[in-house]
TrEMBL record:
<dbReference type="InterPro" id="IPR029057">
    <property type="entry name" value="PRTase-like"/>
</dbReference>
<feature type="binding site">
    <location>
        <position position="417"/>
    </location>
    <ligand>
        <name>[4Fe-4S] cluster</name>
    </ligand>
</feature>
<dbReference type="GO" id="GO:0009113">
    <property type="term" value="P:purine nucleobase biosynthetic process"/>
</dbReference>
<feature type="binding site">
    <location>
        <position position="318"/>
    </location>
    <ligand>
        <name>Mg(2+)</name>
    </ligand>
</feature>
<feature type="binding site">
    <location>
        <position position="381"/>
    </location>
    <ligand>
        <name>Mg(2+)</name>
    </ligand>
</feature>
<keyword id="KW-0315">Glutamine amidotransferase</keyword>
<dbReference type="GO" id="GO:0000287">
    <property type="term" value="F:magnesium ion binding"/>
</dbReference>
<dbReference type="Pfam" id="PF00156">
    <property type="entry name" value="Pribosyltran"/>
</dbReference>
<keyword id="KW-0408">Iron</keyword>
<feature type="binding site">
    <location>
        <position position="380"/>
    </location>
    <ligand>
        <name>Mg(2+)</name>
    </ligand>
</feature>
<dbReference type="InterPro" id="IPR005854">
    <property type="entry name" value="PurF"/>
</dbReference>
<keyword id="KW-0328">Glycosyltransferase</keyword>
<dbReference type="Pfam" id="PF13522">
    <property type="entry name" value="GATase_6"/>
</dbReference>
<comment type="function">
    <text>Catalyzes the formation of phosphoribosylamine from phosphoribosylpyrophosphate (PRPP) and glutamine.</text>
</comment>
<keyword id="KW-0411">Iron-sulfur</keyword>
<keyword id="KW-0658">Purine biosynthesis</keyword>
<keyword id="KW-0479">Metal-binding</keyword>
Amino acid sequence: MPRGDGRLSHDLLPGEKGPQDACGVFGVWAPGEEVAKLTYFGLYALQHRGQESAGIAVSNGSQILVFKDMGLVSQVFDETSLGSLQGHIAVGHARYSTTGASVWENAQPTFRATAHGSIALGHNGNLVNTAELAEMVADLPKQNGRSTQVAATNDTDLVTALLAGQTDSGEADGTPLTIEEAAARVLPKVKGAFSLVFMNEHTLYAARDPQGIRPLVLGRLERGWVVASETAALDICGASFVREIEPGEFVAVDENGLRSFKFAEANPKGCVFEYVYLARPDTDIAGRNVYLSRVEMGRRLAKEAPAEADLVIATPESGTPAAIGYAEASGIPFGAGLVKNAYVGRTFIQPSQTIRQLGIRLKLNPLKEVIKGKRLVVVDDSIVRGNTQRALVRMLREAGAAEVHIRISSPPVKWPCFFGIDFATRAELIANGMTIEEIGTSLGADSLSYISIDGMIEATTIAKPNLCRACFDGEYPVELPDPELLGKQLLETELAAGPAATAAADAIRRP
Ligand code: SF4
């Protein structure tokens, strides 16, 4: 099924990819509640984090059922499918693919049998030692003749396989480890970004990588517990925020309550791009509200990069808070210069070439009466390839704008992300190899300015050492393997790139 481009934001011409999120996860332990429906609404609140596939696993205490398919949450589930998912524990997942193709087999939650029952697991993030993990899976002992074969080609299924397949001795005749014992052994070996929500028949689990790159929060229901990628997903299902799952923490919830242990020392490096663009504005991360961060980025941008203009407009929706901040700090009025067609991105109908040529007009329409004759400041959150901004400038000029000054509330994106955001390859990033002035000329703008890295970081109120900002400065918080051992298709091609990649491919095929 072709992918519907339902991302809330801006940097997309139809058929062009902008920054993409790497999934939303949700889990609930709540006897007596309709856990599948709570998960459905939780995933609905997280839909912006992944629109390729959606899935929910539910346990009734004796067995786990998984329902997943390609498409948006609202397309995958209906009353009948949700009604068939009866139980007291659930985990849910909305996917955007960063390792492994966008196919049904890679939809999550992943599911595997273990010696103690089953495990269903959802993952937000992206791992950087996938090839190494594939070798570890290939070395797992067969248990009771059961295969360790990995059916999917995503990094998540490797983690699921490793959690399911541990024995005390590491040999086939060893005693199988429980999930908690296996997690203590396996999770310290997993490198990269992972916010995991998983379950067996009796217990809900959650874990977050030592850097805490992707968010993960814990909430309380009257009769249960919730874990979710964003606090906005707690709000929608009536859960109160308790705390973040700490970087390097493993949590288990069952009828005995909540217990937790540290599987690694915390070394916080939360993704700064969550504050810029990825997370919902009504979410709080590390105690800081995302909307307030964006407004403050706009204020600082106005001070760092003033413009002589008549009107501040936003690229809706993601540029709006920063545009409000820019207008407030500059004293230039804020107005709606662009109207977004909120539903065009929510279709699986592929536009024909003729329609595709309409480009940005499929998504945005200028308000000519507002724009005509005005000197505009156009605030956007980021530029990846620049194609959309170029089309936007042309459209605004055609609508009568006298001047177009572009202001960006994040610094130039110069480096790829290996932790769950699919920007583009380095060669495709417009800021890689061009000066800001050259980019402005290429976009056809009268001027272009970006916020500074420090301005962006200060707006989050989070200490600079505690944030990942690698896509802006190239300082990756986790050691990266050789380039040939990174990449979305690592587990789908043998790459002719040495033993690790071959082992990865072998692990997939192993009978
Ligand atoms: S590289 Fe950029 S997008 Fe990726 S985790 Fe770091 S700050 Fe976030």
